[in-house]
Amino acid sequence: MGDRTLFFYGTLMSPAILHRVIHGPSNPTFPTPSSSYVRTCPAMLHSHRRHRVRSADYPAIVPDTASDACVRGTFATGLTDADVGRLDIFEGDEYERRFVKVRKLIIGKSAGAGQDQELEDGTQEEGEEAEVETYVWIAGKQRLEDDEWDFETFKKEKMRFWIGSDGTEGSTGREEFEAVDQADGTGGRSVNGSIGRQLEQHHRGGEAIGSAV
């Protein structure tokens, strides 16, 4: 377990995608997202706004001085330097990793529910502030749409093109992945995309180094 802490607000809020990026393809050491040493909780980032990226499945955030500008995402702890290196590859040159301050969101328990959920009155309370790193869009606002990117919509409509239930391929199969990569809605980030292949090479290189020491 490492000591790096990051804030995710897009596709990396998916445990399966985060697991695939930092651990590589499914293997006996890290077979499922639940085995990951990374711990997450909901958090809020203020003074930023999340946008849809034109012709892409993933979002971007940019600083915004409006009083209501905020982004709800995932606060992740336990990341290693190697994990962050792989995340840098995944995000590519459209983003810059910067330090920001977020507030963890307080989650309540509904009586008898047996699981965490938002407070019963529909509100959410902000807790302690923490300094974290996140990926801020630097590729130009002309590529951003005014509309907010929605994680639930992504899960329903686009997730299958990024990663399958086994953590390696999209649920529609390798041929569908190749077709999606040509349209490049993933920006090369799917398993068979250019960034995905670079991550795979990086992962294999790490395994080779690890086996030599």
Automatic annotation (TrEMBL):
It comes from the Eukaryota. Residues 112-131 are annotated as: Disordered. Residues 117-131 have a biased composition (Acidic residues). GO terms for molecular function: transferase activity. The keyword Magnesium does not apply. InterPro entries: AIG2-like, AIG2-like_dom, GGCT-like, GGCT-like_sf. Pfam families: GGACT (PF06094). Keywords: Transferase. Residues 6-150 form the Gamma-glutamylcyclotransferase AIG2-like domain. Belongs to the gamma-glutamylcyclotransferase family. This is Putative gamma-glutamylcyclotransferase.
